[in-house]
Specification:
Elements lengths: L1 E4 L2 H13 L5 E4 L7 H13 L4 E4 L14 H11 L1 H17 L2 E5 L12 H21 L5 E7 L31 H14 L3 E4 L1 H12 L1 H11 L11
Parallel strand pairs: 1-2, 3-4, 4-5, 5-6
Helix pairs in contact: 3-5, 7-8
Length: 240
């Protein structure tokens, strides 16, 4: 298994857990916003394992704030990671997946179905990723490649502790109540199951399924509920 991310310290810990369980793990430093990083990571993966059967495009963070208080650079930064980072992953791995008739998993979000006040950049990026997954599903099917879109709701992670520049603010508090957050391990199991089954889309978390259902079937009611709740996500965290 190849593990690629910017912060390799986290990956090293995970790799030790995997190897202790009898699996092989390769740790790779990779930034999806940098041209060439993914191609280099894929080349090393191919050398180590011979083939690539499953690709998980998971990199992402959230830019928040009212549109009128954000600038074009905020939206560009959001799309550079959440959309173009996924595209770079696809371009770097698609030939390998065609050869292995493998599986591509793209991490979207419930926000790819529903946009809320203060969350336009993130929702826009996830709407775009959902459109990409739908197109790729048709384009890659003749080559035997399965595409699964995973749309999580609130899951235990650090995404809500990351500021608008993409920097982790570990001292910040997660605004989502603990009872509403799905634990990481069951969420990961659901993702693996969806990829194994070749699901078209898997909405992770019960509340996420409810929100997507309402948005699909009674969008007027969903819009009214969002307006009444006044939900605006986490407060803006500007990096310095």
């Amino acid at each position: 298994m190849a593990l690629a991310a910017r912060r390799t310290d986290r990956l090293e810990t995970l790799a030790r857990e995997l190897t202790a369980g009898g699996r092989r793990a390769l740790v790779l430093a990779c930034d999806v916003t940098k041209d060439g990083d993914l191609e280099a990571a894929v080349a090393r993966t191919r050398e180590a394992f011979g083939r690539i059967d499953v690709v998980i495009a998971n990199a992402g963070f959230g830019v928040v704030g009212p549109v009128e208080r954000l600038g074009l650079d905020d939206f560009r930064r959001q799309f550079e990671t959440n959309v173009f980072g996924v595209l770079r992953t696809v371009y770097a791995t698609v030939d390998d997946l065609k050869r292995s008739r493998g599986r591509l998993c793209i991490l979207g979000s419930v926000s790819g179905h529903l946009s809320t006040p203060g969350g336009a950049p993130y929702a826009m990026s996830k709407f775009a990723v959902r459109a990409l997954a739908e197109a790729l599903r048709h384009e890659l099917r003749p080559a035997g490649v399965t595409v699964t879109l995973v749309s999580p709701g609130f899951v235990e992670s650090e995404i809500r502790l990351v500021d608008n520049q993409g920097r982790l603010r570990s001292e910040s508090r997660d605004i989502v109540p603990r009872w509403l957050r799905m634990k990481t391990e069951p969420a990961a199991r659901k993702i693996v199951h969806a990829v194994e089954r070749g699901r078209r889309e898997a909405v992770i978390t019960g509340h996420g399924k409810v929100l997507v259902f309402l948005q699909r079937h009674v969008p007027g009611l969903m819009s009214a509920l969002v307006g009444l709740s006044g939900y605006r996500g986490r407060s803006e965290m500007r990096g310095r």
